[in-house]
Amino acid sequence: MLTLREATVADSPRIGVIGRDSFGPTLSRILFPAHLHHLAHTDAATEEAEWRAARNTRRIKDGKKTYVVVDKLEDGSEQIVGYAQWETPDSLPPAAKPQTASETEVDVLPPSLDQDALKEIFGLMEVVTEQTLGKEGHSQMWYLMILGVDPTQKRRGIGKMLVKHGLEQAAREKRDAFLIATPEGKYLYSLLGFEQVGEEIALGDVPHYAMLWKRPREEGEEVLN
């Protein structure tokens, strides 16, 4: 049985593993390229999962909305099978308070991680977001930072469950939603009402798509974003 709940920092190790396994064919092979694997203190796969786990913990502590789907197994045990992390307007620092550091500067980066590739990817995402949404970017929206599903648990509606939950929260706050999708995720997001905005972009050699979801408006309702 699948249930959805808010994530805690205790979930981070499992989230790190799911993130690594979810993005193995796409961004992981760019961020943790084979020619850097020999630099790993343990092994590159373990380092990537630990890095993703530490980043998830830091983001939760920073107020990022993080949800997991848990599968209750026949023996009564539970296992996390997917997660989603959102940046929301209330999780951002006040406008009067300067941003202390970028995503590429606040975490301890493992030696098997290509730091130049990481900075290039985040830099391009910022440029594309501004080009698509303007200087304010997604600061007034729910922004899906990452969605990961255990590859062995696909086609169970886990990703859909996580994204729909976030969109329901965004709608309650009268907010739209934004994300940058991989080719694997684009179909799901389209089914849930996201539309591609702008041209296809390449992060590394992987095509990605900026996508916008606009919540239903009521007649005469004030639009916040």
Topology pattern, helix = H, strand = E: EHHHEEHEHEHEEE
Which range best describes the helical content: under 10%, 10-25%, 25-40%, 40-55%, 55-70% or over 70%?
A: 25-40%
CATH architecture level-2 label: 3-Layer(aba) Sandwich
Computed CA radius of gyration, to the nearest angstrom: 18 Å
Summed up, the domain count is: 1
Say what oligomer this is: single chain
Distance between the termini: 37 Å
Number of helices: 6
CATH class: Alpha Beta
| Mean model confidence by pLDDT | 91
Which strand-content bin applies to the residues?
Answer: 15-25%
Under CATH, the homologous superfamily reads: Gcn5-related N-acetyltransferase (GNAT)
CATH topology: Aminopeptidase
What global shape is seen? globular
Structural class: alpha+beta
Sheet with the most strands, sense and barrel status? 8 strands, mixed
Low-pLDDT stretches: none
How many β-strand runs? 8
Domain N-acetyltransferase: 68-218
GO molecular function: acyltransferase activity, transferring groups other than amino-acyl groups
Protein name: GNAT family acetyltransferase
Pfam family, one: Acetyltransf_10
Please describe the structure with a list of short key phrases separated by commas or semicolons.
8 strands; 8-stranded mixed beta sheet; 6 helices; alpha+beta; 225 residues; Aminopeptidase
